[in-house]
Amino acid sequence: MKNLFEESKRYIPGGVNSPVRAFGSVGGEPIFIDRGKGSKIYDVDGKEYIDYVCSWGPLIHGHADDDIITEVERVLKKGTTFGAPTVLELELAKKVVEMVPSIEMVRMVSSGTEAVMSAIRLARGYTGRDKIIKFEGCYHGHSDSLLVKAGSGALTFGQPSSPGVPADLAKHTLIADYNDLNSVKQLFINNKNQIACVIVEPVAGNMGVVLPEEGFLSGLRDLCSNEGALLIFDEVITGFRLAPGGAQEYFNVMPDITTLGKILGGGLPVGAYGGRKEIMEKISPLGPVYQAGTLSGNPLAMAAGIANLNKLNENFYYELRKKSQYLWNGFKNNCRELKLNYAFNEIESMSCMFFTERPVKSFKDALTSDTKKYAAFFHGMLKKGINLAPSQFEAMFVSAAHTNKDLDATIKAHYEVLKELT
Ligand SMILES: *Cc1c(COP(=O)(O)O)cnc(C)c1O
Fold first, then answer.
1. What contacts 24+ positions apart, CB below 8 Å, involve 211-215?
2. What is the rounded distance in angstroms from the CA atom of residue 169 to the CA atom of residue 393?
3. pTM of the prediction?
4. Whose CA is closest to 376, among 364, 363, 392?
5. Burial class (CB in 10 A: 0-12, 13-18, 19+), 340
6. 2-64+313-421: which CATH topology?
7. Which residues line ligand 1 (CB under 6 A)?
8. Span 66-310: which CATH code?
9. Distance separating alpha carbons of residues 233 and 202, to the nearest angstrom
10. pLDDT tier at 152 (50, 70, 90 boundaries)?
11. Ligand 1, residues 110, 135, 206: which to mutate, most atoms within 8 A of Cβ?
12. Which residues carry this modification: N6-(pyridoxal phosphate)lysine (predicted)?
């Protein structure tokens, strides 16, 4: 396996096609995966792992789900892409509109990044305003307007968080603090009638897992409505994860535009953005806001998405919640027994244990985590055959494929590894 990574590094920057896969924040070398089935993945040396990364969220039914594979195989034989409408696109669009409460019309794209980038353009085109508000610690893909961090002092312009993002563009992105409505209010006051939209992960899943406090999401809703700005929920993780209708259904707060990805594609590359008809009608060819894609609505991806969503019903979420609660309670009991006061945030089938004793309600709180300790924990778990995200600031996902035996083995490993660390 060592040789594979060395060789990959000669041909692919850092040996990977997405940075966090390189194990940069935990050290060591990534495992190369040969195959997956259900809750398990197998590396190229044949070692088995119980997987809680689940491809960073999409695999809510686990790996190589039989129903999804059957559908993709059936469609595959009819051709992989046409660049013309298919019934599959219609079927998935109808399904999304039926499931996600605030979506009346939806446009398919090929990744979450693309969905968010397009949603931001739509919000700007619709409102005729350039500025947007995002929250520190929320991730919305790698498009220019969103690779922006706070400048010094909350009232300054956003600054590029990557070379290659023009400062002239980044200055239109304003940064607020998650769970701090006042920071958003202040930005609205200082930029009267200039804010096109507020974009938020309704449950933050890219700084670990951080839950919205009571009144935060509804407060954003009110602020946006009063200021003529659009509210965008980036539900690329939470969509179909927290409930059939995502976080908006779970918290009963309706955004104007929703971005989707990950679970939507059932493990194939899909993103989507949708919202009220009156807003979505501004998109080309109906309206002036341009957005297109050669492989958008790809038949294989649509087939996987349909098969995936068809399996999500009330009972599915009930069972998934039961499993998740069992695992989260196991972790909490372990910590109690070991007298560890680590912050543990969970909601439905996603969670994060932060190696800090401070309750984590914001990015600043999350940053107090001991990432060295997380790295040791991660490697300890991996050695015991449990695959977690190679970074403290990511979610852990339970899928329907995880068995009680998997969960018990995971709770046991969690206890043993934590014990070794303390
Ligand atoms: C993963 C993610 C994205 C980006 O999706 P990609 O498919 O990786 O481009 C956007 N927003 C959120 C909240 C995500 O978790």
1. 211/345, 211/347, 211/361, 212/178, 212/179, 212/251, 213/179, 213/361, 215/181
2. 27
3. 0.97
4. 392
5. middle
6. Aspartate Aminotransferase, domain 1 (3.90.1150)
7. 111-113, 116, 139-141, 201, 205-206, 234, 236-237, 261, 271
8. 3.40.640.10
9. 6
10. low
11. 206
12. 262
- In the predicted model, what is the mean pLDDT of residues 346-360? 98
Rounded to an integer, what distance in angstroms lies between the CA atom of residue 131 and that of residue 157? 10
Q: Give me the pLDDT at residue 156, please.
A: 59
Residue 43 a catalytic site member: no
Structural tokens at position 132: 């947007």
Query: What are the angstrom distances between the C-alpha of 224 and each of 172, 230, 255, 362?
Result: 17, 6, 10, 21
Q: Which atom of ligand 1 is nearest to the CA of 114?
A: 9
**Distance (Å) from CA 140 to ligand 1 centroid:** 6
For the chain, the straight-line distance linking the first and the last C-alpha, in angstroms and rounded, comes to 31
Sign of the C-alpha dihedral, residues 188, 191, 194, 196?
Answer: negative
Mean pLDDT of 323-352: 98
Q: Residues 105, 108, 112, CA angle at the centre, nearest 5°?
A: 115
**pLDDT tens across 185-218, in order?**
999 999 999 999 999 999 999 999 999 999 999 9
Domains 2-64+313-421 and 66-310 agree in fold: no
386's enclosing H/E stretch is: strand 386-387
List the catalytic residue out of 49, 126, 139, 374: 139
Q: Which amino acid is at 142?
A: H
Please report, as a single letter, which amino acid is at residue 133.
Answer: I
The structure tokens listed for 195 are 């804010």
Catalytic residue at 47? no
- Looking at residue 182, its amino acid is N
In the structure encoding, which two tokens stand for residue 98, read together? 């039926």
Q: Residue 154 above 50 pLDDT?
A: no
pLDDT of residue 150: 80
All residues at 6 or more sequence positions from 227 whose CB lies less than 8 Å from its CB, including other chains: 188, 193, 195
Mean pLDDT (the chain, rounded):
96
Answer for the pair 85, 93: CB distance below 8 angstroms, yes or no. no
Task: Assess whether 273 carries a catalytic annotation.
Answer: no
Domain spans in the chain, listed from the N-terminal domain onward: 2-64+313-421, 66-310
DSSP state of 355: S
